[in-house]
Amino acid sequence: MRRLFRDIHLWLSVPFGIVVTLICFSGAMLVFEKEITRLVRPELYYVEQAGARPLPVGQVAGQVASTLPPDVQVTGVTVCPDPKCSYQVNLSKPKRASVFVNPYTGEELGRYERLPFFRTMFSLHRWLLGSRPEGGGIFWGKTIVGISTLLFVAVLLSGVVLWWPRTKKALANSLKLTLRKGWRRFWYSLHVAGGMYALLLLAVMALTGLTWSFGWYRTGFYSLFGAETRAQQSSHGDSSPQRQERNKPDGSESETTFAHWEQVVKTLQERNPGHAQITVADGNATVAFSRLGNQRASDRYTFDPLTGELQDAKPHETTPRQGKLRGWIYSVHVGSFGGTATRVLWFLAALLGASLPLTGYYLWIKRLTGRRKRPHLTA
């Protein structure tokens, strides 16, 4: 039986090991993308507090809207609790486009652009630098990433079976990193001990990451937690109010579109004092909190665009289960649910995950070359 698991461990690792290394390494590089981006481009995110009060949110949105081409609209403004943070004015296109604005002067600081390094790492992590076929068909990069991740789970489980020690002494020795017995022994101990230390976290990353790779897996994963995917909701004719699109007026935004945004922001800041990040849009607003747990959790509000009066409030606690699960899957996958401590652990585990196929290849090649060098005994 042990030989069977050794063969499974080896022959699943050999063809897909390099892909697993690329996935884990790129994932590790993305863990602190937000912090690194703010360090590299501080002029976009931070300003000197030049006045006692920032400009009204609606006024800033209107100024940005007046500079946009007719086919691009302002879709919202994000306000941070830190008075030294810039306003982020969100645009309708391209995807995730936004403009940073000094809240005290109205000066446009620049447009959001993902740093080239992180753009490459994200594409490598999700699609092996591939792109979705325009005419449909198989998205090979995404498919290979999904298959490799699925097989990686099998490799991890077979590794546990091979590692399982028979005595307490063997257990203690297998979890030590050997530094003074040559390179081969060092790489072997790194492969075994590193794999065991990172096993649980790597399995969690893989199992949550697969929800972005395969629809059938996502459906089963959601069902396991008693939730439905968006596709299942659509087939049942269930359209969540949070996903319904509002009809927008033709042409550029008028000043009345943003007239009461400042009123809404002030009201929500009074209701949610502290570290709340508020995003206001046409008729709706969200309040996101800097807290542990589901990092995508937010309270949602709707308001009358003509008066700015709040009409409905949906605390995160009332969010449907599938909405909560989506946020938890993301937060667990990237390790952000526990703050900096868990993100550091996820970063180190992902780096160890990237090293496992490489050390495995080394040990496998050493074993093959060692067999070839053995002298043949003759009678």
Draw up the topology in text.
Blueprint: H1 2-30, H2 33-40, H3 42-45, H4 57-65, E1 74-79, E2 87-91, E3 98-101, E4 108-111, H5 116-127, H6 140-163, H7 168-174, H8 183-209, H9 215-224, H10 230-235, H11 261-271, E5 276-280, E6 284-289, E7 298-303, E8 310-314, H12 321-334, H13 340-373
Antiparallel strand pairs: 1-2, 1-5, 2-3, 3-4, 5-6, 6-7, 7-8
Characterise this structure.
It is a single chain. With 379 residues, the chain is α+β, with helices and mostly antiparallel strands. It folds into 2 domains: 1-41 and 115-213 and 341-374, no CATH class; 42-114 and 253-319, no CATH class. It is 51% helix and 11% strand. The chain has helices at 2-30, 33-40, 42-45, 57-65, 116-127, 140-163, 168-174, 183-209, 215-224, 230-235, 261-271, 321-334, 340-373; strands at 74-79, 87-91, 98-101, 108-111, 276-280, 284-289, 298-303, 310-314. It has an 8-stranded antiparallel beta sheet with strand order 4-3-2-1-5-6-7-8. A hairpin with a 6-residue loop joins strand 3 (98-101) and strand 4 (108-111). The relative contact order is 0.13.
Please describe the structure with a list of short key phrases separated by commas or semicolons:
alpha+beta; 2 domains; 51% helix; 379 residues; 8-stranded antiparallel beta sheet
